Amino acid sequence: MKKHILQLLLLLPLFSFCQSDFEKTIQAGGVIINGLSFLKGNKPASDIKTVLMLCVKNKLEEKINFKIVGQDKQGNEIKKDLVIQTDSKECLLEITKGIYTYEVILANRDTFKKGEYKFDDDITIIIKKEN
Would you say the pTM of this structure is higher than 0.70? Predict the structure, then answer.
C-alpha cells in the first residue's frame, strides 16, 4: 500500500499543470515564508524592539507631510518623512519603539498638528479636521 502511495506521489507532478504565472509564484513563496515563520515561533514581547507598522491616513482635502523624529536605544537620531496624498495612506515598517515628536505640515507649509507619541505597537494614525 505504501509503495502505491509513493508511486502516486512521484507521478502526480507529471500529470499536473505547471503554473508559470509570475504573480502566483510570488504568492506561493509568500505562503511558504509565512509558514516557516509560523514554525519558528513568536518571540516574547520583551524581545521585540521594533513596531511592525506605522501607517498614516490623510482625510484632509490636501496633501500633507508627516514627519517624526526620535531616538533608538543607542541614542542615534531617527527621522522619517511621509508625503501623503488626499484620501490616501502611507506606512513605515520596522520603526524602533520609543517616544517620537511628530508634525503634520500642510501643502502651504503651515503646521496642522504637532506633538509627541509613544510608539509601542502597530498603529494607524488618521489625520482629519477636528470639529
Answer: no
